[in-house]
Write a structure and sequence with these properties.
2 copies of one chain form a homodimer. By secondary structure, chain A is of the alpha/beta class. Chain A has 23 helices and 26 strands. The first copy, chain A, has an 8-stranded mixed β-sheet, sandwiched between helices. A 6-stranded mixed β-sheet of chain A has the order 7-9-8-11-12-13, with helices on both faces. In chain A, helix 14 links the parallel strand 17 and strand 18. Chains A and B meet through helix 2, strand 6, helix 7, helix 8 and helix 11 of A and helix 2, strand 6, helix 7, helix 8 and helix 11 of B. Strand 6 of chain A pairs antiparallel with strand 22 of chain B.
């Protein structure tokens, strides 16, 4: 059966609709995040209270507070933990695939509805090679008998019952407790489904999965994608002989304290519970409180798991997609070793206000041996991200490599920097964080080199690919000092291509994605070059086949001409350039812009300490005028002679980078010689006299080079020239 | 300034509107409950994140789960505890008045928004004599300087700032932690406001208020109105030499663990934390988790408060307005004394499914000496509740007595039983529960005596007032056996009045409220009779003066004629009646109706154990046909001779208690002699032939005697006669 997909106007409506669908006996699911999930809360209480099997899949994302954020943490999921839904966490793309099935199978057996969550962006947007479960195996895990029972509980005139009544104080409490057996039974039923899942897929999961030294003394407890980074850190520390481990929470609700305790090694002395959420004013974050309670209660059991109850420390990490690295996990472990561990700490930021943050060693890395990492600087909407997703697919399908792709772009979307982080390797990839150093760095837009330290993350002997219209012989001298320094010191191999020219010549306009992808395969050595070219061409056929043979041929030709246009740059032995990076903002910018806005623009926002941030989300206005992006590779130039002074270009410019002005001739008194103007035309200005002037001015630093002004110009007065 | 009051379409809209009003610099507040509060959650995160002072006043009510309920518990408030709002609890009407001011004063100082809550119905609907705070004292507590600061943070074109932006992973986490100082400072600022409040009112509050033995070994921790019952229980147990106490939580968020620990006597060995909410699948209820965390963390402090950390037990009580009595508090204390205390218990119900419930001694009472308690059985919409509120007002204003009124009516509203619980006395009333035994019982509707054990709650020597149309000399023989038994055994003094006749004679129709109120004052002895009559008359002038002298005179006359119509009944020494209470439902009713519906109808729903309740709120249909309320004191009788067969009466009857039928004459074959019918009229039935019959039949057990059928009847064919 093909499921019916219905788009609702709001998540409140979606929750109501799914409540209704479930009551009619349908197998129904929904997907949401953040505020959307909050709107579902009222219906979630009802759905759970009525013991209705369903699964809500949630890419866990930040709830808006002092600011909105589209990125990932568990604040939305935690806001639902009182509803009576089971909460099941996934930490990777493979797990999200697996737990989705486990949740759907378990909910039918337990009648407790499930919220299955995985980290927004970090997991929801990661590209990863996974093992798919086919329909046949899915079927074996979901007994039709349970589906039949669900359907029989449906509201139908054929077997009428009344549900959704009002109750008074006399019976409500008793009725509320009548659902206890379902919650009591839920964890064991979930484990049973997990066991059956393991039997058909070979992937074994448990309510709580411990990894690390069997005699660990220090353990971190967490859920979601952070557990993968912790896993990597634990492996590294155990390799050094440290007695550490990570306990990964999968079934967070119902919280099975017994299973939790059994999963912990009895040797544990200290535990750091890491919550990816913040509840201001709470005695502690949610998972922390549960762990404290489970351990405290264990001391009163007949055979207590621990002779002496381990010390429990709570911490916050990764709010709104803040990086969470093995170095931060190590900081949590190190904290547990101190005489007075810091509790209710934060990690990943510098809190110089209430001093909650742990120091961490940014040099601590746990990237597995033999992995290959490639970093791409692209411009929003230039096709870089799409091409990289395609490259991952090629490598994932054509080799035995594990692959991972993660893409960072800010919420300015089109026209701002995109960063593509690609990992390949023989060993499974658990690195749920951005890598620090890459074997391959590509800069798809030459402007970035002027603004950022693009090569800072290049490893020694890495390959650097630059798209530039500078002749290969003159590329070296065109580089700023910092880039030359990296290249010389790290012995980088530098390749250049004028991708815009190749694209134009191939009839592809400004679409450089196929060309840059070809360069990557040609020089990275991830695949043998010929094999790689074949793969790209087959992929072009798959992608563009539907658009006709001409488009395919054009792309095929572009691949071939790319190789001819790709040049290695001879690197001298000494740094020669004296050109520094352009200042991020003008020196005249006000203090706030210098201290806060500028580091954010420079991609150094992570380094901003708490004291620099407004406490309530209030920012000064007028800061964007200091952010000159300079991203247009071509800008319009006004030609006063053909201009009909219609002013349309100024109206349509999406970035307000074109202004038209009518002014008295005296204003030109001190104008530079090359300042262009012309007598104003149009009957509205007749009364001013013919001496009045008209100018259209383009702000090159704000123009994105989108070309809409040229398209709209009735006189085609603006000739597009290189910037 | 007179505040502007705006009614919004939904609570989501109200929350958005208040968010906007606050951002414009207004002092703004809103009020809600239950699902309404859930709809406010998204805006609450924003309001708190932006550190915007406001207070939401919440009559805490159950969130709908397996069933909706309009009654009180903390499930709605707990659903907001992640938002960053401060949560401040009140336990009585006086406290709700006081904390409202404290919250408004504190929020301006702390910039943390407040949710001030008090128990829905138990506190929000209780009538209580309180000390009001005048505007002058309110003003001293709210410094204008803080108001000015709030206004200066407003969004205005005069001082533009940008607020409500989007943030990326680089800075969100830091910005989120930037509000920590405000939350850290909040508890001390609240205590400061409480101290200033005490200075101007004499009523001292603390973040946590302890009451009981200074060397208590067992303590209950709770918040809301239940703390009043616990206070009473603690006084009683301390009087017996038990070392117990109650810790009342006032500021629940931010949770000040230090203040919590300081408030606990160091002698405490065991603590029962009582939550008025249930979170299925949680490791424990919210307050319990906080207390466990606070105590566990205290062991790591430099000077730990406790040599040995007290044992903490969690329990649930009072869901959806379930009674919470000193006997239940005692059960919680007793549980702490057992070798293996039951944890995550329930109290107030009998859980025979998962066996969470504590036994409690229903005979344990802590009503203070010298109090007077009066119980009134009324019919929804008959004016009993209103009259009793008026009586409370009279007694509260005319005497030094503390007074309390609480009214129980089920969600059927008009036509079902209302119970008025009135307490008066010289000592302050902390009894936030229904009393078990009354000094005065009034039955405003004789039908109740046939259905319920009305006098079960009469104390020995109590006064019983009955409204009946039976002649005083024949009242005794008209009583069912169980009523006679109570009267004889407890030596009750029985007074009767035919209030409907007095009302009719006085021209007041069926409004018996003034008459019954007069009787109460005449025979209860709460006030001297003459003084009481004066008070009632003055109150009539106040209430009806606006409607003109005639109405006032009519009511005054009714008061006088009431005294003449009030008779004491001679009570024989022996029970003579053999008449039993009518069965609640017909013996032929199905098992579910016998086992579940019938006890609910009989007001014995509190005794239903968990096993009798459907686990998911699903009930069989067709149960209401077994609930025959028999509440009409007069019913319409059909007169076939004058009826024009328009059928309007059957259409308008709100309870579908009138049916009209056209049928073939053969159907009358076995009809009893007195069955009335007539040849059908109307052109639509011509073709049937004149022999076809027409009958209008009234179902006396379902009729409520509302009289709409008579009003609508074009032929006035239905003469209203006594039932």
């Amino acid at each position: 059966a093909v499921p019916e997909v219905v788009a609702m106007q709001s998540e409140a409506g979606a929750a109501g609709a799914i409540h209704g669908a479930l009551q009619s006996g349908a197998l129904a699911t929904t997907f949401t995040s953040s505020q959307g999930l909050l709107l579902m809360i009222p219906n979630m209480y009802k759905i759970a209270g009525e013991l209705t099997p369903t699964v809500f899949h949630v890419a866990a994302r930040t709830v808006a507070t002092h600011a909105l954020s589209i990125f990932g943490d568990h604040s939305d999921v935690m806001a639902t933990r009182a509803t009576g839904f089971a909460l099941l966490a996934s930490g990777s793309v493979q797990e999200a695939h697996d737990m989705a099935l486990i949740a759907h199978a378990a909910t039918l057996g337990t009648r407790v509805p499930f919220l299955h969550f995985f980290d927004g962006f970090r997991t929801s947007h990661e590209v990863m090679k996974i093992e798919e479960i086919d329909d046949e195996r899915i079927r074996t895990l979901v007994p039709l008998e349970l589906v039949r029972q669900h359907r029989e509980r449906a509201l139908t005139p054929d077997r009428p019952v009344v549900r959704g009544t009002a109750q008074n104080p006399d019976v409500f409490f008793q009725a509320r407790e009548a659902s206890n057996p379902f919650y009591d039974a839920c964890p064991a039923l979930v484990q049973d489904v997990m066991d059956r899942f393991a039997a058909i897929t070979g992937r074994a999961y448990h309510l709580f999965d411990y990894h690390g030294d069997p005699d660990a003394e220090r353990v971190v407890v967490l859920m979601g994608s952070g557990a993968e980074a912790a896993h990597e850190c634990v492996d590294a520390l155990c390799g050094r002989g440290e007695k550490v481990g990570v306990l990964r929470v999968r079934l967070y609700r119902p919280f099975d304290a017994r299973a939790f305790l059994s999963a912990l090694p009895p040797s544990v002395r200290a535990i750091a519970v890491l919550d990816r959420t913040k509840e201001p004013g709470a005695a502690g974050e949610p998972l922390y409180l549960d762990v404290v309670s489970a351990l405290t209660e264990s001391t009163h059991q007949d055979n207590p798991r621990f002779e002496r109850i381990p010390r429990v420390i709570g911490g916050r990490y990764g709010l709104s997609g803040k990086e969470f690295t093995p170095a931060m996990v190590k900081a949590a472990f190190d904290n547990l070793e101190t005489r007075k561990p810091k509790t209710h700490f934060t990690v990943g930021i510098r809190d110089d206000v209430t001093h909650t943050s742990l120091e961490y060693d940014t040099g601590f890395e746990t990237e597995p041996e033999g992995g290959f990492r490639a970093l791409f600087y692209g411009l929003g909407s230039d096709g870089t991200v799409g091409a990289n997703k395609n490259s991952i697919k090629i490598i994932g399908e054509e080799t035995s490599f594990h692959v991972q792709g993660y893409f960072v772009y800010d919420s300015k979307k089109a026209g701002s920097t995109t960063l593509s982080y690609l990992r390949f390797g023989e060993t499974p990839i658990r690195s749920t964080y951005l890598f620090q150093k890459a074997h391959f760095v590509a800069c798809h837009h030459p402007g970035f080199l002027e603004q950022q330290d693009v090569l800072e993350r290049a490893l020694d002997d890495a390959v650097f690919l630059l798209n530039t219209n500078v002749h290969p012989d003159r590329v070296w001298e065109s580089l700023p000092r910092v880039a030359q320094e990296h290249i010389v010191r790290k012995r980088l191999r530098v390749h250049v291509i004028d991708a815009f020219r190749v694209a134009r010549d191939a009839g592809m306009g400004t679409r450089i994605n196929t060309i840059m992808q070809t360069c990557f395969f040609a020089i990275s050595g991830v695949l043998p070059r010929d094999e790689a070219m074949d793969c790209i061409k087959r992929s072009i056929e798959k992608t563009y086949g539907i658009k006709g043979g001409a488009i395919v041929s054009m792309n095929h030709a572009a691949v071939d001409s790319t190789l001819a246009a790709l040049h290695e740059v001879h690197v001298p032995e000494r740094v020669e350039s004296r050109r520094e990076l352009a200042p991020v903002v003008d020196a005249r910018a006000p203090e706030f812009v210098q201290n806060v806005t500028a580091p954010i623009i420079a991609c150094l926002g992570d380094d901003l300490p708490v004291s620099r941030m407004p406490c309530d989300g209030t920012f000064p206005v007028g800061t964007s005028r200091w952010e000159k992006r300079n991203i247009a590779s071509e800008i319009p130039i006004w030609d006063p002679q053909v201009c009909i002074q219609c002013g349309k270009c100024a109206v349509v410019c999406p970035h307000a980078a074109i202004r038209s002005k009518v002014y008295a001739p005296e204003s030109l008194a001190n104008a530079p010689d090359h300042f262009q103007s012309r007598e104003v035309q149009g009957k509205d200005f007749k009364e001013l006299g013919e001496a009045w002037r008209y100018t259209i001015q383009v702000a090159p630093e704000d123009c994105t080079g989108c070309g809409i002004c040229v398209e709209i110009c009735p006189a085609r007065s603006k000739e597009v020239v290189r910037h």
